[in-house]
Amino acid sequence: DLDTARRELEEFIPHVRNISDNSIRKMAGRDLARFKQFKKQGIAVKFGRFSHKENNQIRKNIEKFLLITGIDSAEKLLFTSRYPADKDTINRLKADHRFCEKLSEGIPRPWRLIYYRARKMFDSNNYKGRYSTEEKEKLIKYQALHGNNWKKISQLMSRSNLSVAMKYSEIKSAANYGPWSKEEIQKLMHAVEEAIRKRIEKEDGNSLSSSEKSHREISIDRETLHDKLPWTEIAAKVGTRFWRQCKQKWTTILTNKMSKGRWLYRGTEGLQAKINLIKRLYEMQVEDKNEVDWEEVSHAVGHLPKAYVQAKFYKLKVTCVPLWQKKTFSEIIDYLFEEKLPELEEQL
């Protein structure tokens, strides 16, 4: 029964009390037995960012299921509604060969999260870059016609469900898109300071004296200044900006402070920063961007906020690597090291 299922799931998912009854029923069927099996093996249920190992396991599970069923692509398997002629056959094969069970094999996470991750990885409509003015106008028109039916709208726009939903919320927010005013910057500074102060107080609890807390607030770790800040809450306090704008502006402020006003990505300093960035990423020899220690990379480049360095890497990748969307992370780094690095060194 529902109460028993909720009680048993609570051992693995602390926030289960906030989950709807319908979701509890699905989790009881898809997840509970798996979670108990993982517990016997001493493996905890995970949340948050998927690791390189988990992404590879998803790919293996998908490939294995395609071989078993004869379905000819991951897109058909995960986006069956895009193929109406094959829909009934694919759904029957998924039911006959226990798709839910096979997809989640070896991954200690709720099935729903694994499914969403797989859809993101194999969606041909993902990673299509910025929205044009025409696309934004279409999105507003389609939302007026179909409401928040993001599945329908994503099909009409050839963008992923998540992409159209997030872009619409950004367009419809009361955000200002012009230069930041002094008042807005002040509100942003106060909101960030309050968020950092709350985090420090939570970490310290009552273990430190007032003087020690005061000292901790002055000498907080650099990471605390920009890592995992509650940007939605901060944006709500600023009032006139979307959360992504707040994050970008704060990164710019921090970068300016940390670099003492120097333009690290212009002129010869910019060339040297790009060279250092490519070399450091190549030396790390990681297969997935989720495995990169961006804090360490930011030290190598110039003691900057890691969000700033990540943004610069993204720009470098997009502007210098042909067909980067179809390459793995390691292939992108290899290309930058072998093809772009000699060119930058020559320019320098």
Please, could you describe this protein's structure?
It is built from 19 helices and no strands. The radius of gyration is 24 Å and the shape is globular. The model is unreliable at 213-219 (pLDDT under 50). Helix 10 packs across helix 11 (161-172) and helix 12 (182-204) runs antiparallel to helix 14. The chain has 348 residues and is mainly alpha-helical. It has four domains: 2-122, no CATH class; 133-172, Arc Repressor Mutant, subunit A, CATH 1.10.10; 182-207 and 219-259; 267-347, no CATH class. One of its GO terms (molecular function) is chromatin binding.
In one word, what is the shape? Answer: globular
Distance between the termini: 69 Å
Radius of gyration: 24 Å
Query: Taking all residues together, what is the mean pLDDT?
Result: 81
> Which class best fits the helix and strand makeup?
mainly alpha
> pLDDT below 50 for ≥5 consecutive residues: which ranges?
213-219
List the domain count as a whole number.
4
How many beta-strand elements?
A: 0
Succession of helices and strands:
HHHHHHHHHHHHHHHHHHH
The proportion of strand residues reads under 5%
Share of helical residues? 55-70%
Helix count from the secondary structure assignment? 19
Instruction: Summarize the biggest pleated sheet.
Output: none
